[in-house]
């Protein structure tokens, strides 16, 4: 009943989860893409084929965005198989004998990200047997009245199946099962289940190493791997866990999430009711907006119609008046013709012989004749046939109508906190709502917490980011942004606050000269990222010692030194990193350190014991050139406080005077005060000081990093920007 709750959902209610996003049908042999979305096997092949065909049409007209099936007709499976058999393509996306590179990238229909299937294409994808089993159970539930028949019985004695053998991949009735699986034979040990048409393998095999079972889980790639993948394959430097551990953790997380959702069913129903109310309100408000728009335009139409009628009436009156004037002038000129009244009348008057009578009549007639004669000499129409005074210039009104704003007030943008960076300069990013209308420009405003609420604005910004210069160090800044469309400004975005570092940015890149190990460290071409690879060299180093697997740190320093002032730099350490030490180093001791190597076969040669406690960081020898703290496995290890070091009171744990383990920040910052002989370590996102200590600033100091095992350090773009521009 409606009032009861259950921990299970009827299988008939999950159909929408079993639909392929491409073919819109139930999944058939679904494959798991690297982004964890599933797609039918045949649909993946069609996606690759479409990209393969598009490579021939690179110079042709652009295709319309959308799903692959909406761009061009889907190739038939027969055509695909024919191309594969003929050697035109050895796998979907392969083109032999062509300078065009083979196509291995497809767009994921679920998340719209480009997925690169790599060298082996589809063969590298796992088949989603769990989803396939659920689809099969759904099919059986949907066709409960249709029985699965025995694959061995022959008509007319065809019987319903009662068992399905997972080894033989066939279904049997009771008699046929006994016949084909007799006691005392190996077949009697086969695994059998209830009648089914879904025969999945007993063990999941690695797609890259086809003879190996998957028994581990890569936490970086989030996929099962075999031991060969971990030893020397593409997952050699990744963090992996046992399959049982991953199974237990993921199952517990999923169970907890499902239980949470079920426990929040009332809340979900309330939110659904709220969404239904919003849908109705949206429908009503949309209809109201339509009516209001119609009313506005009707008033405009009425006003235009009135003005149109007035203008047409004025034109008509002016036209009639001018025509009457011109017609009167025509009649007057017609009187001057020989056979017209005036000339004929004058000729008759000339026949008068009585002088007195002639003079009496001819005087007035002569005046009329003189006027007619003068009008012939200076001809002027009595009316102007042009209607220039009625010509309208509506360009201004047309412009106003075209600029008429239908979008109302723009939606406020949102500042993207994760992409924005604030140093002595600030790079602020924001994003607009997904259904926003085009905007003219944006205005970014900012203020210092000490400015008593005075906001300063940037110039107009026509993109989605802005750069603010000359910020005060160690200050709290607030930022907000608004959009403008057709001279209408949106509300301000919610304010976002950032704390500037305590010192100006120090620009440097990694140095590939001083003590850099090309065997175990990989430096990218830009020299802004360094990666430690736990490969063969790591194993050989471990082989040389008999007391444990002690391995030394591989150091790398910055290419620019510090000899005065305060400087700050920030970087990111990948969460999977095993052990990474960060800090500063003195050049007066670096030369001796790198040119007089210690005995790496003894665990006593280096201060680092291989443990992640970080306790050794507080008790360096005076000859030690480095001042470092330890990071690894998603943690920061704060050393014990000593006479030369201290921890900020805000971070001190009550009753904890020893080592402390903190979660690793997304970004770590270091500030070196050369003149005060102190170094500070910060959470670069919140500018919270994690640790500080005294440091011997003799000579030139360099940013220093030590890596052991798998790990990666990436410098911030602000730190490398000025270096990379030269």
Automatic annotation (TrEMBL):
- Domain (Fibronectin type-III) spans 409-503
Region feature Disordered, mapped onto this chain: 57-76
- All copies of the RING-type domain together span 20-46
Report domain B box-type positions: 201-243
Protein name, please?
Tripartite motif containing 36
Q: Which residues form the B30.2/SPRY domain?
A: 488-723
Task: Name its cellular compartments.
Answer: Cytoplasm, Cytoskeleton
Native organism is Xiphophorus maculatus
Name any Gene Ontology BP term.
spindle organization
Residues forming the COS domain are: 350-407
Q: Which GO terms describe its cellular component?
A: acrosomal vesicle; microtubule
Keywords annotated in UniProt:
Coiled coil, Cytoplasm, Cytoskeleton, Metal-binding, Microtubule, Repeat, Transferase, Ubl conjugation pathway, Zinc, Zinc-finger
GO molecular function terms listed in the Swiss-Prot or TrEMBL record? ubiquitin-protein transferase activity; zinc ion binding
């Amino acid at each position: 009943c409606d009032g009861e709750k259950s921990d299970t959902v009827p299988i008939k209610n999950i159909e929408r989860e079993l639909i392929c996003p491409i073919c819109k049908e139930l999944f058939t042999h679904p494959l798991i893409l690297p982004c964890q979305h599933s797609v039918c096997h045949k649909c993946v092949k069609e996606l690759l084929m479409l990209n393969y065909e598009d490579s021939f049409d690179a110079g042709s007209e652009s295709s319309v965005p959308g799903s692959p099936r909406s761009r061009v007709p889907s190739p038939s499976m027969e055509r695909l198989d024919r191309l594969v058999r003929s050697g035109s393509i050895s796998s979907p996306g392969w083109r032999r004998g062509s300078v065009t590179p083979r196509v291995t990238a497809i767009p994921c229909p679920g998340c719209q990200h480009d997925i690169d299937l790599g060298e082996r294409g589809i063969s590298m994808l796992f088949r989603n047997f769990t989803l396939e089993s659920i689809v099969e159970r759904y099919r059986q539930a949907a066709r409960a009245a249709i029985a699965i028949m025995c694959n061995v019985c022959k008509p007319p004695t065809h019987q319903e199946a009662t068992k399905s053998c997972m080894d033989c991949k066939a279904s049997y009735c009771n008699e046929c099962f006994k016949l084909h699986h007799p006691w005392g034979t190996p077949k009697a040990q086969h695994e059998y289940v209830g009648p089914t048409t879904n025969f999945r393998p007993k063990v999941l095999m690695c797609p890259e190493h086809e003879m190996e079972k998957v028994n581990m889980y890569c936490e970086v790639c989030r996929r099962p791997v075999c031991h060969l993948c971990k030893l020397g394959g593409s997952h050699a430097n990744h963090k992996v866990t046992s399959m049982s551990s991953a199974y237990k953790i993921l199952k517990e997380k999923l169970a907890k999430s499902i239980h949470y959702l079920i426990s929040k069913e009332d809340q979900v129903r309330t939110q659904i009711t709220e969404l239904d109310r919003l849908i109705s309100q949206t429908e009503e408000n949309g209809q109201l907006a339509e009516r209001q728009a119609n009313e506005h335009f009707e008033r405009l139409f009425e006003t235009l119609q009135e003005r149109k009628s007035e203008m047409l009436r004025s034109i008509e009156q002016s036209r009639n008046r001018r025509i009457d004037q011109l017609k009167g002038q025509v009649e007057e000129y017609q009187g001057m013709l020989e056979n017209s009244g005036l000339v004929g009348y004058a000729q008759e008057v000339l026949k008068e012989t009585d002088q007195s009578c002639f003079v009496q009549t001819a005087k007035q007639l002569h005046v009329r004749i003189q006027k007619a004669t003068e009008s012939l000499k200076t001809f002027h129409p009595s009316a102007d046939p042009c209607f220039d005074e009625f010509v309208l210039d509506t360009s201004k009104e047309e412009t106003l109508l075209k600029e008429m704003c239908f979008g109302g007030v723009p939606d406020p943008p949102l500042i993207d906190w994760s992409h924005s960076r604030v140093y002595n300069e600030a790079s602020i990013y924001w994003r607009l709502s997904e259904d926003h209308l085009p905007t003219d420009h944006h205005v970014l405003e900012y203020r210092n917490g000490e400015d008593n609420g005075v906001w300063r604005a940037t110039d107009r910004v026509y993109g989605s980011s802005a750069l603010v210069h000359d910020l005060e160090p160690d200050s709290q800044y607030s930022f907000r942004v608004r959009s403008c469309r057709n001279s209408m400004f949106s509300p301000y975005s919610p304010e976002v606050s950032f704390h500037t570092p305590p010192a100006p940015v120090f620009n440097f890149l990694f140095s590939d000269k001083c003590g850099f190990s090309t065997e175990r460290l990989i430096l990218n071409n830009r020299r802004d990222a360094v990666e430690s690879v736990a490969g063969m060299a790591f194993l050989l180093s471990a082989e040389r010692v008999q007391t444990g697997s002690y391995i030394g740190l591989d150091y790398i320093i910055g290419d620019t030194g510090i000899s005065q002032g305060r400087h700050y730099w920030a970087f990111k350490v990948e969460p999977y990193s095993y052990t990474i030490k960060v800090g500063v180093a003195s050049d007066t001791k670096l030369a001796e350190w790198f040119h007089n190597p210690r005995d790496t076969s003894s665990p006593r040669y280096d201060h680092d014991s291989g443990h992640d406690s970080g306790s050794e960081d507080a008790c360096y020898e005076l000859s030690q050139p480095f001042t470092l703290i330890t990071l690894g496995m998603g943690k920061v290890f704060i050393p014990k406080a000593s006479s030369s070091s201290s921890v900020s009171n805000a971070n001190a744990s009550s009753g904890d005077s020893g080592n402390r383990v903190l979660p690793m920040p997304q970004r770590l910052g270091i500030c070196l005060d050369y003149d005060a002989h102190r170094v500070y370590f910060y959470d670069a996102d919140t500018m919270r000081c994690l640790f500080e200590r005294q440091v011997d600033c003799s000579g030139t100091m360099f940013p220093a990093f030590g890596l052991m095992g798998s790990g990666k350090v990436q410098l911030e773009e602000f730190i490398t920007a000025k270096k990379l521009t030269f």
